[in-house]
Amino acid sequence: MELTSLKGIGPTRLESLRAMGIVSLRDLLCCLPVRYEDRTRVTSCREARGGEVLVMGEVRDAPKLNRFAGLTRVTATLHDDSGRLPMVWYNQPWVCQQLPVGETVMLYGRVVEKNGRRALQNPQRVTEPSIQPVYRGVKGIPAKTFREMMQTALTQVDDCCPETLPRSLRLRYGLCERNFAIRQAHFPDSVDSLRRARRRLAFEQMLMYQAALSMLRGQKEDGFALPLAKDAPEAYWRAMPFAPTGAQRRVLEEIAADLRKGRAMSRLVQGDVGCGKTALAFGAIALVCGAGYQAAMMAPTEILARQHYESACAMLEPLGIRCGLLTGSMRAKEKREARRCLQSGEWQAVFGTHALISEGVEYQRLGLSITDEQHRFGVRQRSALQDKGAVEQRAPHVLVMSATPIPRTLALILYGDLDISVVDELPPGRVPVKTRIVPEEKRGGMYGFLREQVKQGRQAYVVCPLVEDSEMIDNVRSARATFDGLTRDELAGLRVGLTWGAQGAEEKADVLHRFAAGELDVLVSTTVIEVGVNVPNATVMVIENAERYGLSQLHQLRGRVGRGNVESWCFLLAEENERLRILTQTNDGFLVAQKDLELRGPGDLMGTRQSGEMMADFLLDGDVRLLEEASRCMKQLREDPALQEERRAVEAEAAGYYRDRLSQVALN
Fold this sequence. Notes:
The chain has 668 residues and is of the alpha/beta class. 38% of the residues lie in helices and 19% in strands. It has four domains: 1-36 and 136-160, DNA polymerase, domain 1, CATH 1.10.150; 41-128, CATH 2.40.50.140; 232-422, Rossmann fold; 434-586, P-loop containing nucleotide triphosphate hydrolases (Rossmann fold, 3-Layer(aba) Sandwich). The strands form four sheets. Strands 11-12-10-13-14-9-15 form a seven-stranded parallel sheet, with helices on both faces. It has a six-stranded parallel sheet with strand order 16-21-20-17-19-18, sandwiched between helices.
């Protein structure tokens, strides 16, 4: 059966599906729901609070219809033995005729609380309990139509999606059959069936990935084996104007050991903000350039790239290493000169932004590619820098650095393809940042504390998710409105600055310079200050609408304070939840990243997605225990002679599954 044979798919909808990467019936069946609506458990009216619920009760009075400004609102009240629950429907006037008065009905909707009042918004009538799949939206195809298409496609699941795992392996690990798993993943009979289905598909995805990695390891290109002296790392530290921590010494020795091997290094250096990762990157650059090769370090923002360049001029040029800078905003003449210096080898180390991987940039002998704050780069961007360095069919060494590894990176670490160095020691005098969740009613007290910090000569950041107020997004604070309000009310009399990403380069640089110089007490901004801003005197970080950010980004923002030797604070303006509580409990970026993996999933491990669920692919549950179990399974298949038939079967499936992607996988 072809896609066009499914009911409701004409030429227009076929194009919409193709735009989402769905070109076959198998692709459609592999497009799993992004979430589910559990319409099996009834919640009483009294207990219905926050989130989606199924309620059952009686509508005793006729619904009321109100019209205003061309819009409609229908209101009614549901009653059960526990009490009553107000309901509201927006722009659905027909509900008045469809809601039976005096009868018991089941309704499913989202309970929203505002100003102490709650209401069930836009509930749908439910005729029988079920677990409803919710798919990612496809332009031009209504959700109901998409579900009907999927139900028809599932009649062909046996032909489209045959079994991939040996029966003996499935029995050993308690995995259900593939066709059962796909059916239940789309339209589960029960919560338990859904759990079993997701476990099976997640395990399979991870096992195939493991098998593909095994094949990739055999194809990995040789790297440059550098003849480094045994004391080369120590010689670098002796030349520095500071004493390294024990962790820094250990990690540079690990990097040096990699550089001496004939295989290209693929190592992640992870540590909290301020632990000295940049000095380690410069150490790696010094080792590589001292052996006659070039090094390139790519940063996500021009501010950070320029900061690295200026630091390198001070720390590396005295060692005889010529440094250069290449960014997108440079004049055409400057870019031409930069490209000449790279191609001729005049520059041994270059620092820059995405311009380092732009067309026309060629390196003479690139031996080391470094990506800093790598959670800000896409997989292809990181790979492009690596690919620029192929010399004599030898791959450059790769070093990636992050204060918080993204879930995809952490997943790679779990399965052994990235070596990891953890800088688990802060320089002497650093004090861990204290993180607190601040509800709206305590906002005033928080700003009072901020004022006290300024009186003591300290500085503060206030970060907002938007630049301007938006009519499309309610209850989200913008930087401009916050700046206006703070200068007028809570922080009146203080020196407050404002910056954002699209601000003019000169104006932005001026604001950041004034803040760094202590000419501003408070800086209101968007996340433009997430990386590359180093002001040790700043001791307070306020993050508005903290619930809108990922854990990694919150951890990075928190890292803007606590860079001196005095107590610092990070205040998360939001209602308390599980995600935010993690940040109040630890400053360890690795633990934050592991929790991020559990909550968000590891992304498309063989593709380019950084996190979240996979489109046209089977999703991973993000359960670290399951991922580790699949990893152990593949290890056993590789090592146990009695399981070689199973191993061959799994690797054959993986080869077919990843046939078109193996050559494009970025292992950094």
